[in-house]
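Lay summary. Proteins are chains of building blocks that fold into shapes, and those shapes determine what they do. In this project we predict the shape from the chain. Here is one chain we studied, written as its sequence of building blocks.
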Amino acid sequence: MEKELVFGHQSPDTDAIGTAIAFSYLQNKLGYNTEPVALAKPNDETAYALKKFGFKAPRVIKTASNEVNAVMLVDHNEPQQSVSDIDKVRVTHVVDHHRIMNFNTTDPIYYRAEPMGCTSTIVWKMYHENGIEIPQNIAGIMLSAIISDTLLLKSPTTTDYDHKAVKSLAKIAGVDYEDYGLKELKAGTNIDNKTEDQLISGDAKSFKLSGNQVRVAQVNVVDLPDAMKRKDAFLKAMDKSAKENNYDLFMLLITNILDSDSDALVVGSDSAKAAFEKAFGKKLDNSEIKLPGVVSRKKQVVPPLTEAFK
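And here is the predicted shape, written in a compact code that computers can read:
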């Protein structure tokens, strides 16, 4: 059978990489010939999870059409978040938990989208539906993905299925998910050794909202006041990136994983910033706004921004 590549979105997180690995294994068991790859190197949290469960990081690709004719997507569907030449390959499968936007195909495909806290939760369901046993290491990386996306089941995106999947996968992986989960999340919060450019691009996604190019980045920390000492440097890096990439709005969400509160930094055009203020019902104070309880880009940031930009 012709080979296909499986990958998540640009600036991959633990869900994008972990689910690509898990979904590729499942598809191979179902008779396909796939390889999990990534669109960038793993972040610190993902690297910690990969090492914990004995995986090497998937190789990074810049383009897909030079290798294969078809691909499978996980944890994304929007073209601007995918491989640069996504328009030159055939998408045969999509498994995702985000909104569906700007996605078109010429042929019928397998498309599965469910409002779960993590794509790996959907894939966990698919293993059970197909009667495929989950190996210990695969269970571990899927567990890591769910812990990451749900902030150890504390995110408002968390569903009953996420809770069930975490308990099931932790048992297979042989770990205490609460103890391991906190260690995993903390592994991704050391920002002292990273530049502002690295931090604003490490976990960032682009969205097209009513013709506006919107970039939303997120950084997880355990000491929010300490991170905010770098506010001016963050804003400078964001402004530079916005001008170079023609973003109408660039938002950086800095989230404290221990208390689930965030501060947001914002740069952009006056009209885009006005839309941002409308979305959250608050005025920016020196390019900053406090967002207590906001931790989910998918559920608590993109939907109100989408409405405000209409």
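What the prediction tells us: DSSP finds eleven helices and ten strands in the chain.
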